[in-house]
Amino acid sequence: MASKNIQLSVLDLAMVPQGSTPAATFEKTAALAAHAENLGYKRYWLAEHHNMEGIASSATSLLIGMVASKTKTIRVGSGGIMLPNHAPLMVAEQFGTLATLYPDRIDLGLGRAPGTDQLTASALRRDPRAAMDFPDNVKELQKYLSASNSTAAVRAIPGEGLDIPIWILGSSTDSAYLAADMGLPYAFASHFAPAQLFDAIAIYRKNFKPSEHLKEPYVMACVNAIAADTDHEAAQLATSFKKLFLGILTGKRRKLGPPEDPENFMDPMEEAALQQMIRFSFVGGPEKIRMEIQRFLEVTKVDELMVTSPVYDHSARLYSYEILAGLQTEGLHY
């Protein structure tokens, strides 16, 4: 496989830190998106989550519209829309509206998980069989977005005939088979589910079938990346997201909190368990983080890298993305 320069993109989980509000989070999301655009990032994606007081991206398509309205060139999309929570027709109409307002800038990433707990999934009127119907729902959505649907009894207006790139998202090998069979680009959530990354990429590439949408396989992986001027400062910033993810593991969910002293802030057993979940998290000063990200690219040979920087302080978060963008300018490749 020939050497390839790699572009960076942003995943924003619209986190509401301790002491903050969703309104403040949305302001910071708009500011980060404009910052990412100026720094040369390729895409800015938002993810659908529900019933989480620390994440404010439940109405994902509305946030995508807000971000697109505050930027001019960066691609904006979903990482992702949890399709079984929604009727395919409604998704086609919503993203058709977005793509009409912001032509050639909207991405539609689709996932099959509920993006929440089972009780909340039930409140969303999610059919327990929805995950099994995911492939059919993707095809139904494609039908509504196709120009050939113009003579059908049910049509997506706006949406019909628009070239909206559809991505299949996943955290396991199931999604890899589907993305390959449908000839669609594939995005893997290795920032929180690293275990099957290599198997999923191999399955996707081996089984990929060219389609009208994509001629060759295209893989994007998402990782956590926290950069600062020094390794110690970055390690301190990273204590916030480590505590957050530990809460997910232990069932004690919390908002993103202020950083702590990185020395002895977590029990060694907790740290060991956490590392299984956040294996692909790159933390450090410019040299350390460049070396680690470069090694990840060489091993995975992904076509694009999406980064999320869960940092408590907004200015430190902006600076983290600035340092990471500098790595791209200098040339990330495999």
Please provide a written account of the structure.
The protein has helices spanning 22-39, 60-70, 88-101, 118-123, 134-145, 173-182, 197-207, 231-250, 268-277, 286-300, 314-330, and strands spanning 7-12, 43-46, 75-82, 106-111, 166-170, 186-188, 219-227, 281-284, 304-308. It is of the alpha/beta class and 334 residues long. The protein has one domain (7-226, 280-330): Luciferase-like domain (TIM Barrel). Strands 1-2-3-4-5-6-7-9 form an 8-stranded parallel barrel, surrounded by 9 helices. β2 (43-46), α2 (60-70) and β3 (75-82) form a beta-alpha-beta unit.
Secondary-structure blueprint:
Blueprint: E1 7-12, H1 22-39, E2 43-46, H2 60-70, E3 75-82, H3 88-101, E4 106-111, H4 118-123, H5 134-145, E5 166-170, H6 173-182, E6 186-188, H7 197-207, E7 219-227, H8 231-250, H9 268-277, E8 281-284, H10 286-300, E9 304-308, H11 314-330
Parallel strand pairs: 1-2, 1-9, 2-3, 3-4, 4-5, 5-6, 6-7, 7-8, 7-9
Helix pairs in contact: 1-2, 1-11, 3-5, 6-7, 8-9
Family: To bacterial alkanal monooxygenase alpha and beta chains.
GO cellular component, one term: cytosol
Protein name: Luciferase-like monooxygenase
Helical/strand content category: alpha/beta
Q: Give the termini separation.
A: 9 Å
Name the shape in a single word.
globular
Q: What's the helical proportion of residues? A: 40-55%
GO molecular function: oxidoreductase activity, acting on paired donors, with incorporation or reduction of molecular oxygen
InterPro entries: Bact_Lucif_Oxidored, CmoO-like, Luciferase-like_dom, Luciferase-like_sf
Organism: Flavobacterium noncentrifugens
Family: To bacterial alkanal monooxygenase alpha and beta chains.
